[in-house]
């Protein structure tokens, strides 16, 4: 006789952080761009706030998922414009 395992893991595992998995709580999974240099991760203890990380450093705190994604996309476009114009990095 083997133990019978339910097909739905939620039947036997109760999540201690059930409120962050609530769809009304925001986007608990966060957001990462394709190359992984920008990320928006949820802040512990908050249902909607996200911390924006760029190359391992905290850059900004956004009040919700949409603001976080908008901030990141704006910063990416600014970076692209600066690269296009050129910078002093090649001379340093």
Structure description:
- The protein is α+β, with helices and mostly antiparallel strands and 92 residues long.
- The protein is built from 1 helix and 4 strands.
- It has one helix at residues 65-85; strands at 31-32, 38-42, 50-54, 57-62.
- The longest helix has 21 residues, at 65-85.
- The radius of gyration is 19 Å and the shape is elongated.
In short:
The protein has 92 residues and is α+β, with helices and mostly antiparallel strands.
Write the layout of secondary structure elements.
Elements (H helix, E strand, L loop, with lengths): L30 E2 L5 E5 L7 E5 L2 E6 L2 H21 L7
Antiparallel strand pairs: 1-2, 2-3, 3-4
Provide mean pLDDT, rounded. 77
Shape: elongated
Question: Got a strand count?
Answer: 4
Q: Which regions are unreliable across 5 or more consecutive residues at pLDDT < 50?
A: none
Indicate the radius of gyration in whole angstroms.
19 Å
N-to-C span: 71 Å
Structural class: alpha+beta
Query: H/E order of the elements?
Result: EEEEH
Main β-sheet: number of strands, strand sense, barrel status? 4 strands, antiparallel
Strand order of the largest sheet: 1-2-3-4
Number of helices: 1
Q: Percent range for helical residues?
A: 10-25%
Q: How much of the polypeptide forms β-strand, as a percent range?
A: 15-25%
